[in-house]
# Entry
Amino acid sequence: MAETCSAVLLIAVLAWAVIRPFGWPEAVIAVPAAAFAVVIGTISVGDAGNELARLAPVVGFLAAVLVLAQLCAAEGLFDWCGVWMARVARGRPGRLLLAVFAVASVVTAVFSLDATVVLLTPVVFATTARLAVRARPHVYACTHLSNTASLLLPVSNLTNLLAFSAVGLSFVRFAGLMAMPWIVAIALEYVVFRRYFAADLGVPPACGRAVGSTASKAEPVAPPWFAIATVAATLAGFVITSAAGVNPAWAAGAGALVLSLRALLRRRTTLSGIVSAADLPFLAFVLALAVVVRAVIDNGLDAALRGWLPHNTSLAGLLTIAALAAVLANVINNLPAVLVLVPLSAPAGAPVVLAVLIGVNIGPNLTYAGSLATLLWRRILRQHNHDAGLTDFTILGLLTVPAALVAAVVALWISLHVLGGYGP
Amino acid sequence: MTVVAWIVEATWPACVAAARRYASTDTDVVLLHVTDPNVADVAHGAYAGLLGRHHTHRDPGRQVENLASAAARKLLDEAATQLGRRCTEVERTGPVEREVVGAAEGAELLILARDGDLGHLGPRSLGHATRFIVDHAPCPVLLVWPTAPPAVTTLPPPPDP
# Structure
């Protein structure tokens, strides 16, 4: 009975999040569902409380990063990135792609994938329009890198933050172990993109200027030094807090606070603007979803899946769990996937959890719109009628995801051996 | 009678030059730009993948759509200026190759530029959309080089008999 109830609640929460009736926030059903799970006893008050207590710092960390990214956008950091990419590209689409890869990888790693999807993608498109080059490869690159480049830091993806809190790795150690998988996966994407979009990238810049210059000159924009310095200090803060054994969320909070105070003093934002950047309904959704997933795990999913999950940290074991995580992320979404898989894989140790993260972070590139569930719903709504685009995206996913998964897991395995990650 | 010149980022000046040269003064010149909706769709899709963040209505796909339509208008205006004579600017959105073939129906001539890897002279040198249009065009096609055309000496040696 408890099994069925908890499963129905989870399905209702996920279905609402995908369908979004009336455009209402996802938390509207998730929070009552979590409360209901406690009331009917599928999860005890104590367990739910523990889950919330464990995730509160994670959610605080997330809020700080969301605010930091939004205020950096307000300071003009992403527009400046656009100007920088245009300058580096010198009108050549191939060079622009390299610049887009560099910027999208760093933005995703530092500000999380949300920033790349929401804040950077329009800037990249505007840059291609200004340079009068074809936009397709560069916009696709943003989408792919928002997933692939989210391996590096705990802040790069909410999935990482959720796992990070469960495995007891320090911030620096996490970054150290994920650095090589991050670079290898991005490099692989780059090679595939260069070949796949050769026709779009092969048109030399001279064509556009043969008769008259189409590429309007980008106005010189002063780098937003204050934002850059604050972000650099925040990154340094991650290292220092990590060394001191303090939660790195404090560093993110301090960075967000500094930028908030400056924006408020300069009247560039309001308090309500900052609160809305922190996206409270989303934070509530994450907490509620975690409680609902916990109830499902405790009511049988744990026992059902435990036999299926490889618990050895051999290369084959890590590859298997990464593939499994990628499949699960593609079926529902990587957020519930990581909530299910992390508690199950955490007892096997950090290497297995990191392999799960490689799977759930790179995997979504396989399915347009992040998961099959969302894709199906979008097709029912006919929001997406362009089969060519779907085919394009899926082919690109098939060319990159399996190869990037294998390459990243092998890189992780090497990192674990070199840096001694198998120890305590 | 109309001559349709397909205006694409980067390669369009060659098409405008060809239209100036080959379209007689009494023909209508149509400057055609097609926006690929897949680019904005990819941005919509990436946003849809962010579970739990949709109530904020910050869909980057919408921004990309607006930017794309502004960029298309600007490109067409530049091409019209370059052409220097009366012409019709046509802006379409849809599967690029099919829209171009559709727009060329009843035209006297369709002008388009080679794309793809211009350093690789063939076989299979054209980009996907261009290849499709050359194959299915309902009218004569003028395929122009966006850069100086290659010399005859670049021909590969004939295959062995």
